[in-house]
Amino acid sequence: MSVERMPAHFYAQSTIDLAKALIGNYLVHFLNGELLVGRITETEAYLGVLDRACHSYGRKQTKRTRILYEDPGHVYTYTMHTHCLLNVVAERSGQPEAVLIRGIEPVCGIEKMESLRGKSAQDKQFANGPGKLTQAMGISMNAYGESFIDGPLYIGYNGQKNGVPVATKRIGIENTGQAKYFPFRFIENK
Question: pTM for the full model?
């Protein structure tokens, strides 16, 4: 499978636009010399200091959120309920925003993904959640701070036209006031 790496300027667009643009493109991971590829089917945008659902809300800066303040195109991983979650740092340096990759469809390296997940890729629930997809792709907290631009983990495209993403409200963020109603979750329109 031929998947071209996205250029640096791809990540510098607005967080909402990046969340939409990721849909239909590919998450690629070289894991111990093996190529794992998943087509991105679901994302969520987190809009930084004014978004109560974002880890950098109120300009919060911690060891965990440090990478959000860096240049776009960095990997932001964090652990939630024992699962590693994968985000793409967006916008520009100093504007701490990111896009959570919530779901993929396995494309290449499926046997290895099945081994990592302990499940069949035929299961519709195989990689339809942020913790499931990182497990299937072998992505760990060690990816924190790496670059999607030149690292072993990247976003790619293969020249095919992507579908139009559908906006819905984000999920799993119940204690964030009005932010839980923002239509910043994007899913593939099939």
Answer: 0.94
